[in-house]
Amino acid sequence: RTAPESSSETPDCQTRIDSLKYTLSKKQKTRLSARGRWSTWPAFASGQTVLRNHKPCCAPEERQSSNKQALLTIPKPRYLEQLESYLRKELQSLDLTKKNSQELKLQPYREIFEFFIDNFKTYKPLLSAIKNEYEVTLAHQKKTIRALEPLKAMVTTVSEECTRQILALQEKEKDEINTLKQEKQHLLKFIDNMKEEKNSLQTQVEHLQTSVAEEYARYLNEYGARKVLLAKLNDMHNERLEMTRHQVQDVKGEDVVKLTLALKIARQDLTKAQVKLNTMTADYGDVVPRRDFESLEKKYSDLLQEMKTLQKDFDQLHTEYETLLEIHRETAEERDNFCAELQRVQHNCTPRPNWAKCSEVIPGGADRWGCLAEGKTSDQLVGVLLEEIGTGALREINVFPGWGKGDKVPVYLRHEGEVKNKKLTKKDVVNILKDVWREKIATGERSGLPEFFLSYLQKKYGDAAAMEWSYTLYENMRLCRSNHVLSSFYDILTGKVGEEQYHGQNQLISNLQKELAARDSSNSGSLTSKQFRQEADHFCPYCLSPYSAAVREAFPLKRKESIQELVDASRCKLDSTEDLIDYISLFKEDEEGNAEPFVAKLRTQYVREKQEYLRQLKNKLGDLIEVNADDLKTAFCTIDPDIDDQTLDTYIGLAYQVQREQPDQEAVPVETVLERLLAGEVRRVGPSPREGST
């Protein structure tokens, strides 16, 4: 179905619509009040309910309760009834089964609204403007929907790819679980072997103890036999002496009395010797010879030492066994936690996208997307993709809506109405912003960047076109966050960081350029390894770069790791054939303001070192919620002992947003202080008291 104003409608339909318009217009004229105003339903039917001298869109509340009953009994106007009847007929004649049924259903309402616009002459401009604005909005929404349809298909494809990757990860986890189970079986077998070895050693110890006992019993028996043998030898010796004595007596014929006395004395001595021998036998019957005792004692010591060694090995094996059991238990718990975490991640987390598919929709194809995506994380790739989509949409916009002229609107965006889009390229935007910085530095302007930015555009392009350039530059800066020139200007322009931070970074880079140039005696723009090998080795034997000493001279507080990162970033400019480094090209930028990896790494380290400095400050403040100026000064002096008074006063003024001549300030929340310091130019003055300068 088409609108009445469409050129494709039939003559009969047009005649019918004109007839209805004429009829409605004729009946409308009969409902004019005595004062020439339109009568409002249901007020015209009863004089008691006519609203007199009321303001538009503002009926008193006390009048509603008194007129409520009257409103229910008053009939509708005929003009309203005819419009409703016409609307019902038109809606009934539509075929709502088609794909565009909603657009067909909207057409009768368009016609009714046009009848109102044509008959209400007084409100016709306003109603026409309302209708046109709705039509423009509907067209914009349709255009947006058509633009998002390809992204819907891309999201579906990315979801399927991530599902496949998750399934692959599950298969990989199964293999790892099987490996852990096999390792567990191996450890259990090892433990069983150690138990068997322990039992074998215990058996050997028992066997050795039995052997020692047997040897001890054998030595006791030998000791008893030896005593018996000695007794027999003594008896034989005595008998031999007795026989000899009898023979002597027979030969010499000695005196019998003398011999009898000698025999008596000998028997007494024998009795004493026998008593003494019995006493010694009773006292030392269980004693072994010292030689045997020492031999047995040595053997026992060796066996005891061997047993201690075996016991120590056993204890160590037992400890290792307990450790392995604990590790196995922890591994099993960790495996279960990982499985649960994997299931939770699979259930909650968004699948990783296939970024290669973005090359199909990015201008320039796979080559340009490869350059944009090189070395970037997923979060950075999302930013690149949004930037490409945003810049593409920005080129299609012809005008920007004005932000108004309120106090909260930045001075460079205060404008009523629409603003023309200049459709600048990124190269043009970079050149303009660089020219703004050059102009501000050259003039020494002390005003803020927003005011100077507006005055620069007014001076260069005129007051009339200044807002067009301002809005166009602002939108490009807001979208292109990956470009350092645009992002840094945008952050300073919006007040996220201070202007001194931009000048501080440039000053660091300038100092390094001067240091390298000072070492280039031939002014060739290149440095050889031989020129600075000796001094570089003096500073760091691990850094063999020809300009590492110059980097250390320019940045004496940088750590060895940071210096090595800069050295690695400069390798792309190394001429391997002549061992030369083109240090001038390290500081060059392309036409869109993108710096070389060396300068990008310098800026990254600048931000990282500042964050580390402020993190140490926060740790020093501890659990304080608010901090005053004296405590903040103490914390700065603790983490940076070499800081001078002037720099310290500058940092305090930056933290409390005051001048030096106002030292007494109230306490400020710690988070607010850290945010202000992060936005300004804050960096370490001397080496850290814990690490020192490298």
From TrEMBL:
Pfam families for this protein: TSNAXIP1_N (PF15739)
Coiled coil start-end: 177-211, 293-320
Keywords per UniProt: Coiled coil
Top-level lineage group: Eukaryota
A GO CC annotation given for this chain: cytoplasm
InterPro entries xrefs: TSNAXIP1_N
Keyword Coiled coil attributed: yes
This protein's record includes keyword Phosphoprotein: no
Domain called Translin-associated factor X-interacting protein 1 N-terminal: residue spans: 84-195
Protein name per its UniProtKB record: Translin-associated factor X-interacting protein 1
Organism of this sequence: Pygoscelis adeliae (Adelie penguin)
